[in-house]
Design brief:
Structural class: alpha/beta
Number of helices: 8
Largest sheet: 7 strands, mixed
Strand content: 15-25%
CATH class: Alpha Beta
Length: about 250
C-alpha cells in the first residue's frame, strides 16, 4: 500500500469511528454513569492504582475518554484530568457530566494519534478500548511517549477486538442490547478494515512500545477476569489486557 492509500485509509477509518460513536454517545454516557456508580468503580480504581504513582495531584491525560469515565474516576481521587476524544458528541456528553457530577476536568476534541499538547506534559496517560481503533498505533505510541514526563507511566486497557470471536449471548439488560443492526454492521466493517493493518495483540504492543522508547513494560492478560467477574450489564466478553510502561 502506498503513502496516499495509507493516508486515505487512515482518514476513512477515523471517519467511521467518529460516525459510530456519534450514534451511540448519549446511551453510552448513561451506561458509563451507571458504571461509575457501581461496584465497577472500585475494580477499575484498584487496577489503575497498581500502576499510578501513589500521590495526589497527578497530571493525567485520558486518551479516547469517551464521555469521561476515567476522568471522573481519577478526578474524584484528587488528580488533574484532561480527556480527549475524536468524537465531538462524546466530548459534549463528558462536559455535561462533569458539570452534573461536580468533578472538574478539561475535555477536547482531538485525534488520539496526534494529541496537541507540549512534550513532557503529563505524569500519566490512561486509555481504555481505544488503541485497537487506531490505524497507526506505532505513531500513537511514539507521540504518547513524548507527552509523558520523565518516568511518566502509560496505562492501556484494551483487547484484540479486530480478531475477537463471535460474541456470546449476553443479558437482556446488557449495553450491547441497545446497539442497532446498523451499528453492529458498522462495527464489524471497522474490524475488517483494521485487521489487515495490525498484528496480533498484545505481543505487537510490546514491540511497538519498546520501539517508541518505553521501558519497564508490564503485561497483564488476567485483568478481564477481575474486572468482569460476573456477567452483568457491564460485562465485556472479549478478553482484555493491561499493558503499562514507563518513559
Amino acid at each position: 500500500m502506498n503513502e496516499v492509500n495509507d493516508i486515505n485509509l487512515n482518514k476513512k477509518i477515523k471517519e467511521e469511528v467518529t460516525d459510530y460513536w456519534s450514534s451511540r454517545a448519549e446511551i453510552f454516557n448513561e451506561l458509563k454513569i451507571q458504571e461509575l456508580n457501581s461496584d465497577m468503580r472500585g475494580r477499575w480504581l484498584k487496577e489503575l492504582r497498581t500502576y499510578l504513582p501513589a500521590k495526589k495531584g497527578l497530571k493525567i491525560l485520558d486518551i479516547g475518554t469517551g464521555t469521561g469515565f476515567f476522568c471522573f474516576l481519577l478526578g474524584a481521587e484528587g488528580h488533574d484530568l484532561t480527556g480527549i476524544d475524536l468524537t465531538e458528541k462524546m466530548i459534549l456528553e463528558a462536559r455535561k457530566s462533569s458539570s452534573i457530577l461536580g468533578i472538574p476536568a478539561e475535555f477536547y476534541v482531538m485525534d488520539a494519534e496526534m494529541p496537541d499538547f507540549p512534550d513532557n506534559s503529563f505524569d500519566a496517560i490512561v486509555t481504555r478500548n481505544v488503541a485497537w481503533t487506531l490505524p497507526d498505533l506505532k505513531k500513537a505510541y511514539e507521540k504518547w511517549h513524548d507527552l509523558l514526563k520523565e518516568d511518566g507511566v502509560l496505562i492501556n486497557f484494551d483487547g484484540d477486538y479486530s480478531r475477537e470471536n463471535e460474541q456470546q449471548k449476553l443479558p437482556e439488560n446488557h449495553a450491547h442490547s441497545k446497539i442497532t443492526q446498523e451499528q453492529w454492521s458498522a462495527y464489524e466493517h471497522l474490524k475488517t478494515e483494521l485487521r489487515p493493518i495490525s498484528n496480533p495483540r498484545p505481543a505487537w504492543d510490546v514491540q511497538l512500545l519498546k520501539s517508541a522508547g518505553f521501558k519497564e513494560i508490564r503485561l497483564d492478560e488476567q485483568v478481564g477476569d477481575r474486572i468482569y467477574s460476573e456477567i452483568n450489564q457491564f460485562y465485556n466478553p472479549t478478553p482484555i489486557f493491561t499493558i503499562a510502561a514507563r518513559k
